[in-house]
Design goal:
alpha+beta, 5-stranded antiparallel beta sheet, about 35% helix
């Protein structure tokens, strides 16, 4: 988001500083004090932060508030700039530090009003949770006031200092997660764009779960809306990126006689990573697992009695409403009761190096008007799009749910805590030391008068309005199943007979099916067995598609060799094998040519590997393989051969003429980049982490690729940044790993020291690690 010249100038300044010994020492002073004693205010008693050799802290305090204070202090020590960037993103204040390049993102955030909603939520929380958020903020601010030396390098490069932390800064993290995990309105925009030029029959084929009554009759109105520009204006984080796994097995099916729970949530990679491992200990309890810098919760992990894990459900909790502007008064819009005025507010975006930008934000009875995120010169043609969602109100108590969940002691307490979860809906697996296992998918799920939220719908009729929420007791849930286990992997979790609509945006069932296969192969589970499942690389997608694709008899010698290799392949996406590279490159080219030949430019944002659709093309719709200007194709052999030749030519160009030197690991690189230094010449090569990885589009060890990237189409930029396996026979012995490291400071030895261990599934055992550095926070009063 910074202009190249600004980055280059900043980089030059830092390099000149580093060139001198004094400058290097000054930069090194940005590393935190991890030993000794620091006097701070607002404590009830001493707080001990003991870090192990991997930088994982054990934070001990007299009570929950002191533990939250200590976590805030530790997060600020290790992840201060990440926290700063996160809250500025949520508040729409990136342009203050990045300049005009960040204004479009800030516009989007101001229109959505995430930070306003977060701030309004705070007074609605219970007193214990408010005190915890205030204690966490006090811990962050204690670090800011007691630190000595330099700020982390990003602050020096961008030349600004952080403001004091507030509870709203913590709560906006939850809003950002809601936006990312429940962001299906990106899908609505894409489908509306397709509906302008693609027939209903073709849409039904492109989306196997396409509802027969989808409102494609609005296609004419869709043409009047700036759908492409709205879609392009969305930050990359917005929208579903399926790739999380969890399962829990009861004690009757484990070697220890107690449940085993495993979870590996997948999100965008970064350096620093999303997750920060920590243990919190008070006289009443110990809680450990994956925390997020900026918030006082253990999001995924365990306490003394229970363990839990999440995968995204993908429920549809966002609807786009086409609002009709009142032709007699453009400050009003049409409702079932007549004309109503837009609720408006002015937002001023401060811009580094430029004049402030003023944005007029409008809302309707459904929610914010998305087109207000576009520049003022966008002409409206009688309609606007408004977003209704579950998490933009001021009554979001999800923070309450997380806090109480961390401290639950049994299934009833855990389930009760999740009544307060508003968004995003998560497939939650549970286990406790008493032997109970459970599953629940809590959240506020809308009930609609009609329709299914799959495409933008008329807002002026009231026909598609929300009428309430799915009752909590009717949400998908269960306890102690006869099968002895629960599994979820973003797959469909309810039968067709389920009385409420949740979603049509389920992921492929492949990962869930493969987990079930592996559990059946090892009827007595253990931590080792579940860790092996997390590392599984078998692709059901390849198992289904390769026999269909490799049935051709190509003319070229290298194509014949490639087909022969694929026919002998075991369908494992291992990094030392060539077959995953050939298969993925071939499928990428085949999907591209089929979709663009059929759909034209409409395929631009739909194009992906699309295994379900490509399998259906090969089995049922060979005419999609032909040239639309010529008679329909009777089979796909010609298209398959042409795209295999094209894929092999690209591989020769990028990896050399000798296919014996190719392998998946050369192309499939996990890229964990720093959001600032990755944009600075020279520095981007110093402050990043990357490593060859296994896995693919649908494997349990998920390794989805960036196939639309013309330069690095096989790069992995999403994945399991956290993995946890807990045996409830001894929760303190839980296995954990996070990437790339605990620290966000690129000068720290813990910036990227866990990448290889993470890639190779060599877990940390924080509960048994000895402290190598201990910092004690004592009250100054």
């Amino acid at each position: 988001m910074l202009r190249l010249i600004l980055f280059a100038a900043g980089a030059l300044v830092i390099l000149l500083m580093v060139a001198g010994g004094g400058g290097w020492l000054y930069l090194r002073s940005s590393l935190p004090q991890v030993d000794g004693e620091i006097a701070v205010s607002s404590l009830h008693g001493p707080v001990r932060i003991a870090r192990d050799a991997d930088g994982v802290p054990l934070i001990e305090g007299r009570d929950d508030e002191d533990a939250a204070f200590g976590l805030g202090f530790a997060h600020a020590q290790d992840r201060l700039f990440q926290m700063e960037l996160q809250r500025r993103y949520g508040a729409g204040r990136l342009a203050e530090i990045f300049g005009a390049q960040a204004v479009p993102t800030d516009r989007q955030m101001r229109v959505l009003g995430l930070y306003r909603s977060a701030a309004a939520t705070f007074p609605k929380l219970s007193e214990p949770v408010r005190r915890a958020l205030e204690a966490y903020s006090a811990g962050v601010n204690a670090f800011l006031t007691t630190r000595s030396g330099a700020l982390p390098p990003e602050f020096l490069l961008l030349r600004f200092s952080p403001e004091p932390w507030t509870p709203a800064d913590s709560l906006v993290w939850g809003k950002l997660m809601d936006l990312e995990l429940a962001g299906n309105y990106r899908g609505e925009l894409l489908r509306a764009r397709l509906a302008r030029t693609v027939s209903s029959d073709d849409l039904a084929f492109l989306y196997p779960s396409y509802p027969k009554n989808a409102p494609t009759t609005l296609a004419a109105i869709y043409r009047q809306l700036p759908l492409r520009r709205l879609y392009a204006a969305l930050p990359e984080q917005v929208g579903l990126h399926f790739a999380s796994n969890n399962w829990v097995v009861d004690g009757a099916h484990t070697t220890s006689g107690k449940p085993v729970l495993a979870n590996d949530p997948h999100l965008r990679f970064g350096a620093p990573g999303f997750w920060y491992l920590a243990r919190l200990k008070t006289p009443e309890r110990e809680i450990a697992g994956g925390t997020v810098a900026g918030a006082p919760f253990v999001v995924i992990g365990h306490n003394d009695r229970i363990a839990w894990g999440f995968t995204t459900t993908g429920s549809d909790v966002e609807d786009l409403f086409v609002e009709k502007i009142d032709p007699a008064d453009p400050t009003h819009y049409v409702t079932p009761e007549g004309s109503a005025s837009f609720v408006t507010r002015e937002e001023t975006i401060a811009v580094k190096g430029s004049a402030p930008v003023t944005v007029t934000v409008r809302s309707t009875r459904h929610g914010p008007v998305l087109s207000d995120a576009l520049p003022d010169n966008v002409a409206e043609k009688g309609y606007v799009l408004a977003l209704q969602t579950t998490f933009l109100g001021d009554d979001d108590t999800s923070a309450e749910a997380l806090w109480r969940m961390n401290r639950a002691a049994d299934w009833n307490g855990f389930r009760s805590a999740l009544r307060d979860l508003v968004a995003a809906q998560q497939n939650t697996v549970y286990a406790d030391t008493g032997g109970v296992i459970g599953f629940i998918a809590p959240a506020r799920i809308p009930i609609r008068k009609t329709g299914n939220g799959w495409m933008p719908v008329p807002g002026w009729t009231g026909e598609y309005d929300w009428t309430g929420w799915v009752p909590f007791d009717a949400l998908p849930q269960g306890v102690d199943p006869k099968s002895g286990h629960f599994v979820s992997a973003n797959n469909k979790i309810v039968p067709d007979s389920y009385p409420y609509f949740l979603s049509r945006d389920w992921d492929l069932p492949d990962r869930a099916e493969r987990i079930e296969e592996r559990l059946a192969e090892a009827p007595q589970q253990s931590q080792e067995a579940s860790a092996s499942i997390q590392a599984d690389t078998l692709s059901i997608m390849a198992r289904q598609l390769v026999p269909l694709m490799a049935g051709i008899d190509p003319q070229a010698a290298d194509a014949k060799e490639a087909v022969a290799r694929l026919r002998q392949w075991d369908f494992r996406m291992d990094r030392d094998k060539v077959e995953p590279l050939i298969f993925t490159a071939w499928l990428r080219n085949f999907a591209h040519d089929v979709l663009f030949a059929r759909l034209g430019e409409a395929a631009e944002d739909y194009w992906d590997l699309r295994p379900q659709v490509m399998e259906a093309v090969l089995r049922e719709r060979p005419e999609w393989c032909g040239d639309p200007t010529n008679p329909p194709a009777t089979n796909c052999n010609a298209r398959l051969e042409a795209t295999l030749d094209a894929a092999l030519a690209e591989l020769r160009r990028d990896y050399g003429s000798d296919s014996n030197t190719w392998n998946w690991g050369r192309a499939h690189i996990a890229e964990l980049t720093n959001p600032v230094f990755s944009r600075v010449p020279v520095l981007r090569d110093w402050f990043h982490a990357e490593i060859p990885t296994a896995g693919g589009y649908d494997t349990i060890d998920r390794g989805a690729t960036s196939i639309r990237d013309p330069v690095h189409p096989f790069a992995q930029r999403f994945g399991a940044g956290l993995r946890i396996v807990t045996d409830l026979a001894s929760p303190a012995d839980s296995w954990m790993i996070a990437a790339p490291g605990q620290s966000g400071n690129p000068l720290s030895p813990h910036f990227a020291d866990l990448v290889e261990r993470w890639r190779d599934f060599r877990y940390l055992k924080p509960g048994r690690a000895e402290a190598v550095a201990t910092l004690t926070l004592v009250s100054s009063r």
